[in-house]
Amino acid sequence: MKMKASPTLEDDTITKLYEASLNGNVSALNTLIQRDPLILNRISLSPFSETPLHIASLLGHLQFCEVLLKSKPSLASEADSEGRFPLHLASAEGHTKVVKALLLINPDACFALDKDDMLPLHLASMRGRIGAIQELYRVMPESIHHIIDDGSILHLCVRYNHLEALDFLVQSPTVNQQFLLAKDKEGNTILHLAVTLKQIKTIKYLLMLPEMRTAVNALNKAGLTALEVLDRCPRDFISLKIQDMFNEDGVLQTHTSTSTTQQESARTQENSVSHESKRRKMWETQRCKYMQYHSNWIEEKRGSLMVVATVIATMTFQSVVSPPGGVWQEDTLTGGLNCTTYGICQAGNAVLAYVSPHAFLQFMTFNTLSFFCSLSVVLLLISGLRLNNRPMMGILLIIAFTALTSMGRIYFLAQRLVTPDHIAHRFLKVITPFSTTWMIMCIMVFLFHVCFT
């Protein structure tokens, strides 16, 4: 009977030990150890996968862990059915003080791999446990260099969007450029991954790193740079924002080949290419850049453009109703030599149409052109069409420039129409430099759009 009762008593004692670990009951643990000094040695005979230290570490019961480690230090090196040490669990949950206590007993546990080949530092990085990361790195800084299928520990920080943890690891002394540019099983660098996940803050941080900026054209296994990966993603506001970040930082992607053999060939050709070929490649790159969308200013300034176009339309309409020099107030045959020439000057007709018909015709032509262009701008803005693309932006820009140039021409013609002939030559000397300056400005803006945007 005693032999049958003994296993039952042992099972009951082990159960109480696990219950104490769940609650972090240190007094109950001390009592159980006093009653049975070998109780911790019999843990390995229990059917439970985890040891009480696993449970206490997972739940963050610091004092309970300290008593267990003092009574049986080897518990820190026991693995559960997942191959995880207590340090794995404490690190994943971010119990920094427990992590520190476990490392004091067994610092080599930093290199313990679970069934997924992950170190405690990997689990801490996946959850962004910055305190645990700092403690693990302090004890074993070399552990950050372990690479898994999902990439380096930096890939895990990016994949699970923990920028603070990423910053700490990137700034650590043991991280060099080679490790910073390490790739996962798909050949993606951390910049590829951040762009794929559209993590704006992470991308902005990475583009500030000199090592990352110099390697922005690194290729993954699909032969794509980070910016080319973005082109494969659905286009939305975040994608446009990321593209703007690349452009604002002066990051220029160049087209590269899509296989390792082609990459090596491209490097060889680049070293031996002639000056003319380089220049042709530069212009081709600029052309490709120009065909891409680089800014969302057209949407942001839609209201301002509407106001400008409306003002121009109002001014040109008013010029028709009230032309320079006014209109005849009544029918007359005595309103000057021209009235006699044309038979009659009818009421409501422009006076200057009789006095200077050629100049007045130019005035009305440019006035009509400006009015039509301003209405076209208003139409495009209220049409609901997407304007944040190169073709629509180009059309809108040409129309707006035409409207503004016509307005300038209207001003000078109106000035000329109301200027007496004896000082007209002086007026021409005044307007010539302004007209030339305006044309130069238009040409410069056009060339800037073609070559640099």
Automatic annotation (TrEMBL):
Ranges for the ANK repeats: 82-103
Pfam families: Ank_2 (PF12796), PGG (PF13962)
GO cellular component, one term: plasma membrane
Keyword check for Transmembrane: yes
Transmembrane segments annotated in the record for this chain: 359-382, 394-414, 434-452
UniProt-annotated stretches for the region Disordered: 254-280
Topology term for the membrane: Peripheral membrane protein; Multi-pass membrane protein
Name of this protein: PGG domain-containing protein
Organism: Flemingia macrophylla
